[in-house]
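Retry 2 of 3 after timeout on previous attempt. Resubmitting structure tokens to design endpoint.
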């Protein structure tokens, strides 16, 4: 049988058929954890693969990689760029290219063969990656644009019309390969002969353009067949031309839209040609996109459409000569994370007719993106779409929580039959749309909702016997997806949409079980690192589109926490190597500026942000935008991060730093307890968050743990009547702290409450995502997003690691710990997670006196499993006594768990409870 190549989107999976029944096979997983293997600008990319076998306990013992400059050489087993030879190793997810120096704009081909304890595989099917432009001088040309306002712009409102650029080219030879490299700022769309290249939207990824600029790469070989062609680029504003400029002291503005592009063409005779941006391009601002603004929407006048503007022969005599403009200033980098894309279409669930010719469309789900509209009417007719998350009692749009964002799209008809339109350079957060001025009858099929987020696979699933848990998970998925906008924004609807560090420390951890978001967060860590000041300060928002450097621990500490998460979930040590110097500089900065004479870190900016009012009425109509700085929080976090840095130092083989960080942590623990511990058994002001941090971070002395645990339980059960009282800080740690204390039952109660404050309360009051505030239905609308992720805290982590029992112990799930919590009232959990090694599954059902558990462990991984059982003799696997299985190692047994070690494979356990 021949190999099968399956391409899903831009993720390339290359699968081999079995040559013999028991022979392992290899799937080339990816290069550099990439989902788009075009334009890698790393000289030592990370190579990964997955092993497939029908046997249990398959472990890789060696690998052999070949990297070649052509598919012909690779087919002959010639690795002219790198022949690793047979390497004795079980590493299958982090092998770094170690061959000859790679050259810009070249394609590289590779394959791998592995040896396992069950035999040797054949060579994998070939895979490839394209080396991007490695050096600044590879671009070798200049930026073009228009640095100024035109009659089509509205300077006072801060609106710019879209910029259109075009050029016609001639190719006199047969094309073998053509690759387009483009930097279009703030946002771009590329066209060849009138057809858009790629299915990305709102590209490229956002950065601080004075620090780095992301370029995108496209294989345009098929688009350049033949001699005559036309190139076209539309430039939108994005964040380059600042969304709001009334506060220049706060908001960064980078200038007017601009671009640099080159297309490198290789002909079949071996000769080459480069087409680039220069002053032979023509441009205009007189197109149909009259304004485009992320907060306010897009205005499109179809009467001004430039028909066939990106095709050969178009008359551009009235267009201006493109101007050479100043470059942005940042380093040019290949974008390794995917661009955004329309990921799903939603059909409206209802359209309600309102007075004055208006309609209200309900999509039944809060999400982010836009509406694709179909319309027919007279030329000049204007259709206005206004977006909102909820409705007023009278059925009109509730838009007060959008603050200054207009969230409005306008389409002016050209009057030429049926017209279809969707915006290019804006997005909205919404469930409801008010339509005004629509000619004819508004039907649901004419208004398609389009969910837009960074193109990434959903890699996790979770379901249980508790419907509320399942609905919270669904709401979380929609909220997380809605806020992936090349950076992890806080919300998609109001005039903010910033990547606040404080929103994501542990929620990002949970997200990684749901989405293939490693590249997304690798990129964001670079945004944070590049936003650091020379003295070590890290902002609260990164990229620093807002100049917020408030100097606190709980927000910038996210930098270390997410790096740790990425290392744990992917096994990529480079995330700790690359960011260690910046992390160390920040830790020293905070100590030098804010440690007092008693060894306490005094600076905290926000406190336990957005902690719930005691009752729903107490917070009615009140703004949650209040800060309660607390040195206990900053000191506790500094201690936690010192221990993290000690571990990072060890992993970076820096023993001297490790000792220094450990000693500093020991001293800080002493100082913390001296200042904040009370003999009655609590910390600080005895808030739930203060006590949780002391417990989870290990600050409490052993002899005081029991009293502290009692305080935590008393606060929840008695003082809060079985509810949480944590804000964004405390909620990051609450579920795992309770579980580690042996009170998973109490954590489960918090997760399944439907009264205020709780996740279930949000759902009871109509939420289809996660609110910014626990009292989001009654708080003042100024700061009251209905689509946030920060209050998820560690809930999703708890779902996977504690309810399902799927936790990485070592090297990105090569070693797994499976220990689900058995909680009264929860009878079934089915969770799956696609790790880099393959899918991990935990599907358990609890009966009255028995427990059934199906487990899947991927090849080249292993697991320690805690089976709930009173006796070893009561356990079977595949209807055979556990003790008869030679491939299962029984490690220990106690009163309620039997601990075993298993290798890869599918297992079906049954136990008596």
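Retry 2 succeeded. Sequence:
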């Amino acid at each position: 049988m021949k190999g099968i190549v399956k391409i899903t989107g831009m993720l390339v999976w290359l699968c081999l058929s079995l040559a013999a029944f028991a022979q392992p096979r290899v799937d080339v997983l990816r290069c550099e954890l990439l989902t788009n293997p075009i334009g890698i600008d790393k000289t030592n990319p990370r190579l990964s693969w997955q092993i497939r076998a029908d046997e249990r306990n398959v472990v890789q013992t060696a690998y052999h990689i070949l990297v070649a400059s052509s598919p012909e050489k690779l087919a002959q087993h010639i690795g002219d760029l790198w022949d690793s030879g047979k390497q004795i190793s079980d590493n299958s997810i982090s092998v770094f290219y170690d061959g000859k120096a790679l050259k810009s704009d070249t394609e590289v081909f590779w394959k791998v063969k592995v040896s396992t304890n069950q035999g040797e595989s054949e060579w994998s099917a070939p895979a490839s990656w394209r080396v991007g432009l490695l050096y600044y001088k590879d671009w070798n040309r200049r930026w073009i644009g228009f640095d100024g306002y035109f009659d089509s712009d509205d300077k006072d409102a801060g609106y710019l019309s879209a910029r259109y650029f075009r050029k016609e080219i001639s190719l006199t030879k047969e094309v073998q390969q053509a690759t387009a490299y483009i930097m279009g700022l703030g946002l771009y769309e590329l066209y060849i002969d009138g057809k858009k290249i790629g299915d990305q939207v709102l590209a490229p990824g956002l950065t601080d353009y004075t620090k780095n600029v992301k370029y995108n790469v496209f294989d345009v070989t098929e688009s350049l067949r033949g001699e005559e062609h036309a190139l076209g680029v539309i430039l939108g504003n994005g964040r380059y031309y600042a969304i709001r400029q009334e506060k220049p002291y706060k908001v960064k503005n980078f200038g007017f839209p601009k671009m640099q592009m080159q297309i490198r063409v290789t002909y079949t005779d071996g000769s080459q040609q480069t087409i680039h941006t220069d002053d032979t391009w023509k441009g205009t601002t007189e197109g149909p996109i009259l304004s485009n603004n992320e907060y306010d929407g897009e205005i499109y006048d179809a009467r001004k459409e430039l028909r066939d503007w990106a095709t050969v022969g178009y008359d551009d005599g009235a267009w201006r000569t493109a101007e050479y403009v100043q470059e942005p200033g940042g380093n040019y980098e290949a974008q390794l994370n995917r661009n955004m894309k329309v990921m799903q279409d939603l059909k409206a669930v209802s359209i309600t007719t309102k007075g004055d010719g208006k309609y209200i469309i309900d999509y039944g789900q809060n999400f982010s993106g836009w509406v694709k509209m179909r319309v027919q009417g007279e030329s000049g007719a204007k259709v206005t779409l206004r977006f909102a998350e909820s409705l007023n009692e009278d059925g009109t749009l509730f838009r007060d929580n959008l603050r200054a964002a207009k969230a409005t799209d306008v389409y002016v008809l050209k009057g030429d039959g049926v017209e279809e339109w969707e915006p290019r350079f804006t997005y909205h957060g919404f469930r409801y749309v008010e339509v005004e001025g629509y000619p004819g009858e508004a039907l649901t099929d004419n208004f398609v909702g389009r969910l837009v987020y960074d193109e990434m696979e959903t890699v996790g699933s979770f379901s249980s016997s508790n419907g509320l848990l399942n609905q919270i998970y669904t709401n979380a998925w929609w909220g997380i997806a809605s806020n992936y906008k090349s950076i992890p924004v806080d919300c998609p609807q109001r005039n903010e949409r910033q990547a606040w560090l404080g929103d994501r420390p542990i929620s990002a951890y949970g997200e990684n079980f749901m989405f293939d978001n490693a590249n997304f967060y690798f990129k964001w860590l670079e945004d944070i690192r590049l936003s650091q000041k020379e003295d070590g300060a890290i902002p609260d928002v990164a990229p620093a589109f807002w100049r917020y450097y408030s100097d606190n621990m709980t927000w910038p500490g996210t930098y270390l926490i997410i790096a740790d998460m990425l290392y744990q979930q992917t096994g990529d040590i480079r995330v700790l190597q690359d960011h260690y110097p910046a992390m160390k500089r920040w830790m020293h900065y905070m100590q030098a500026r804010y440690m007092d004479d008693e060894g306490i870190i005094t600076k905290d900016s926000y406190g336990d942000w957005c902690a719930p009012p005691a009752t729903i009425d107490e917070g009615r109509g009140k703004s949650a935008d209040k800060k309660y700085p607390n040195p206990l929080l900053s000191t506790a976090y500094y201690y936690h991060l010192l221990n993290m840095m000690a571990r990072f130092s060890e992993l970076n083989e820096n023993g001297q730093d490790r000792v220094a960080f450990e000693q500093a942590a020991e001293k800080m623990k002493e100082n913390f307890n001296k200042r904040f511990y009370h003999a009655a058994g609590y910390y600080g002001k005895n808030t739930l968050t203060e006590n949780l941090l002391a417990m989870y971070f290990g600050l409490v002395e052993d002899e005081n743990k029991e009293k502290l645990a009692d305080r935590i339980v008393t606060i929840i059960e008695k003082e809060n009547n079985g509810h949480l009282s944590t804000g964004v800080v405390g909620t990051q740690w609450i579920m795992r702290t309770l579980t580690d204390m042996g009170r998973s039952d109490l954590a489960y109660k918090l997760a399944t409450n439907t009264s205020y404050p709780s996740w279930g309360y949000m759902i009871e009051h109509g939420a289809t995502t996660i609110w910014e505030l626990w009292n989001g239905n009654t708080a003042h609308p100024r700061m009251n997003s209905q689509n946030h992720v920060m209050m998820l805290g560690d809930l999703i982590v708890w779902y996977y690691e504690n309810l399902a029992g799927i936790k990485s112990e070592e090297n990105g799930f090569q070693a797994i710990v499976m220990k689900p919590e058995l909680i009264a009232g929860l009878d079934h959990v089915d969770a799956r997670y696609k790790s880099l090694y393959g899918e991990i599954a935990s599907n358990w059902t609890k009966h009255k006196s028995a427990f059934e558990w199906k487990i899947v462990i991927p090849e080249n991984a292993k697991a320690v499993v805690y089976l709930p059982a009173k006796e070893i003799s009561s356990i079977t696997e595949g209807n055979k006594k556990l003790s008869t299985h030679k491939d299962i190692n029984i490690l220990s047994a106690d009163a309620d768990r039997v601990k075993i070690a298993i290798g890869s494979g599918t297992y079906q356990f049954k136990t008596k409870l």
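Attempt log closed. The radius of gyration is 29 Å.
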